[in-house]
Amino acid sequence: MGHKQPQLRAKKLVKVATASGLLIIFCLLCIRAKTARAISSPTFISLKTTVTSSPSANSSSASQSSTWDTSSFINLAGVIVQALAFIAVIKYVRDTAKMASATREAADATKKSAEAAENTVQEMKAAREEERAPFVVVYFNYIHSRYHSLYLVVENIGKSIARDIKFEFTPPLQVSQFNRDRIEKNMLLKKGIKSLVPNYKIPIPFDYLMHYIHANLPMEYTVKVTYWGNPSLPPIELEYPLDLNHFNYIHFVTETGLSEIDETLQRLVENFSHYSTSADTTNNLLNHIANSINRGLIIKNRISVSRSNTDTPTMLKEFVFLWVVDYGKQTEKWNRPYIFGMRAKCLLFSEELLKSAVTLDSPAWIEQLKQVISNLSRLGSMQINLDLPDGSFSSAPIFLSVGSSKEDFDNLGDSIITDIRTVIELIEKEKETSLNGDNEEAATQSIVEEAD
Fold first, then answer.
1. Same domain for 232 and 336?
2. Does 340 lie in the same domain as 231?
3. pLDDT under 70 in the chain at which residues?
4. How many angstroms separate the CA atoms of 30 and 33, rounded?
5. Residue 110 within a domain
6. How confident is the model over 421-438, as pLDDT tens digits?
7. What pLDDT score does 52 carry?
8. Contact (CB, 8 A) for 316 and 372
9. Any idea what the CATH number is for the domain that residue 199 is in?
10. Is 353 domain-assigned?
11. What CA–CA distance (Å, rounded) separates 298 from 212?
């Protein structure tokens, strides 16, 4: 918009100058025509009359003077118009020159911007090509576990395939006499490598380190690596030194490679059957130990007492005393040590009552006693879930354990107490009928009431 304003002003000035000139010319032509008509009339009169006096001569000279002044004025006006037109043209040319200069400067700025953008694109392209280009390195590597071997490793650490890889060593590679033929006949070092994919390396056996050092061979080489990445670009050349002196001062550590892992797996397969048998034996022993622990330590150290039929009420009363007086559903006793001992005692009572029930012949209360024995066994093997930070415990493996609550545990114990009371009443009635033992029945009832 800035460079168009001078051009518009110049065009407007030319138009104004042209219009002014045409207007002046038109006015002058009108004046000239009027003057010509005024002169023509006296001329015709002078042809009819005789010029006899001086006033006629004066009139003729005045008309000539008027005609000359009009022509001069017209010429002067033309010169003025041309001068104005020339000035307008000069102004137009100058404004056009300024416009052309501004246009040229804008073009130069656009050209510079285009060149900068092109340079940026070229730099980005070069950076992208460099990032994706292959990068082949050559170095020496020592593996202690492979007979103290020294390897010449060729590795592509770039991101694309390297093609037609060539090597040039200065001085030429030298090895001890034990490996001289292997190096001289190595086609990879002679003819190079056709291609090498990214993140892949080729270890070329070079020499045994101790043999190489004792042979006083060169400890420094200069390698020149030439390879192709993008076929449309020139080949890539890298030249750098390879130093072997550091192998004289480093501490060698045995490295574990794929061969060592394979050997270990082979030994594992060969001895797997032995390990499997040992594991089965260990699992069986652990299962026996777990079962013994689940049944309670009190069972392991208990003393078996031979009880007669008359001891059955005593054992039942002992459990009533244990449940009602000792445990009493107290919250502070709901912990692992106490509940563990309670379960063990329940199993002990169930086993002893079962031994007594085998020899009993009384059909009056044997079924109720069997129910008590069954519930005691259930109570002793019940899976318990304790509301403590250390979690839960049960006779089943921990991953199969569900666990019962304190309410379930207490309800089962209360049902056992109810059944025991029924059994004791039946036993006492039988004794009263057979032996008329009123005193003994009163004592038993007092014990039960005291327990309640």
1. no
2. no
3. 1-11, 13-14, 17, 21, 25-70, 144-147, 251-257, 259, 273-280, 284, 287-310, 360-364, 386-403, 434-452
4. 5
5. no
6. 888 888 777 777 765 545
7. 39
8. yes
9. 2.60.40
10. yes
11. 74
CA distances to 112, 408, 448 from 326, rounded to whole Å, are: 101, 19, 14
Rounded to 5, what percent of the chain is helix, strand, coil? 65, 15, 20
Q: What is the rounded distance in angstroms from the CA atom of residue 269 to the CA atom of residue 234?
A: 54
The two three-digit tokens of residue 45, written as one number: 């009169």
Nearest to 325 by CA among 408, 385, 413, 412: 413
Q: Which residues, 6 or more positions from 424, have their beta carbon under 8 angstroms from its beta carbon?
A: 313, 316, 317, 444, 448
State residue 140's pLDDT score: 92
Q: Do residues 147 and 245 share a domain?
A: yes
Burial of 134 (0-12, 13-18, 19+ CB in 10 A): buried
Q: How many CB atoms lie within 10 A of CB 33?
A: 9
DSSP symbols for 25-54:
HHHHHHHHHHHHHHHHHHHHHHHHS---SH
CA 109/CA 115 separation, integer angstroms: 10
Question: Do 325 and 249 have their domain in common?
Answer: no
The pLDDT value given to residue 168: 93
pLDDT at 138: 94
Whether 359 is covered by a domain: the verdict is: yes
Query: 208 Cβ partners below 8 Å, 6+ apart?
Result: 147, 148, 149, 150, 176, 178, 179
**Where a domain ends, among 68, 96, 124?**
96
Residues 372 and 313: their CA atoms lie apart, in Å, by 12
- pLDDT tens per residue, range 148-194: 788 999 999 998 999 999 999 999 999 988 888 888 888 888 889 99
202, containing H or E segment:
strand 200-208
- Kindly state whether residue 47 falls inside one of the protein's structural domains: no
Task: Give yes or no: residues 87 and 149 share one domain.
Answer: no
Q: Is the dihedral of CA 114, 119, 125, 131 positive or negative?
A: negative
For the chain, the residue count is: 452
Helix (H) or strand (E) holding 222: strand 220-228
Total domains present in the chain: 3
| Distance from chain centroid for Cα 165 | 36
Where among 41, 64, 96 does a domain terminate? 96
Q: Which domain holds residue 229?
A: 136-261
Question: By three-state DSSP, how is residue 249 classified?
Answer: coil
